[in-house]
Amino acid sequence: MNIKQLETFVWVVRLSSFSAAAERLSTTQSTISARIHDLEQDLGISLFDRAHYRARLTSKGRELVPY
After folding, report:
1. Is residue 51 very low, low, confident or very high in pLDDT (cuts 50, 70, 90)?
2. Rounded CA gap, 35 and 7, in Å?
3. 28: left (phi over 0), alpha (psi -120 to 50) or beta
4. Number of CB atoms found within 10 A of residue 17's CB
5. What does the DSSP 8-state code read for residue 19?
6. pLDDT for residue 54 is more than 80
7. Among candidates 40, 48, 64, 44, which has minimal Cα distance to 16?
8. Whole-number Å distance between alpha carbons of 58 and 9
9. What's CA 33's distance to the chain center, in Å?
10. Quick check: 52 and 39 in contact, CB under 8 A?
C-alpha cells in the first residue's frame, strides 16, 4: 500500500468514477484501475463492485473510507 493508491481510492470514492478520478489526478483510467487493483491485492479485499457503471463501494470499501 502506498500514498498514490490511497489518494486514488479517495478520489474514486469522492467522484464515484474511475474516469473522473483519472481526470482529477491528471492520469489515465487504466492507471487508476491498476492502482485500485494493487491496493485491493495489498489488502486482500475487493473495494469496489465493478458490476455497475459507477464505482460502487463494497462493504469492505466502506470500512476503509474513514481511515
Report:
1. confident
2. 10
3. beta
4. 17
5. H
6. no
7. 48
8. 13
9. 7
10. no
Distance CA 54, CA 46 (A): 15
Distance between CA atoms of residues 1 and 15, nearest Å:
21
Mean pLDDT of 39-44: 97
pLDDT reported for residue 40? 97
d(CA 8, CA 47): 12
Amino acid present at 21: A
Residues contacting 67, CB < 8 A, separation 6+:
none
Q: What is the pLDDT of residues 20-40, one digit of tens each?
A: 999 999 999 999 999 999 999
Specify whether the CB–CB gap between 13 and 44 falls below 8 A.
no
- Is the whole model's pTM more than 0.85, yes or no? yes
